[in-house]
Amino acid sequence: MAVVTIGEAFAPPTEAWQRVSPRLATAWRLTTVLIVVPVTAVLIVIFAVQSLMPGVIAVSVVAVVVLGWLWWLLGRRVASFGYVERDDDLLVTSGVMFKRLVIVPYGRMQLVEVSQGPIERAYGLSTVQLVTSSTSGTVIIPGLDRGDATALRDRLIASGEQQQAGI
Question: Among candidates 153, 124, 93, which has minimal Cα distance to 23?
Answer without folding.
Answer: 124
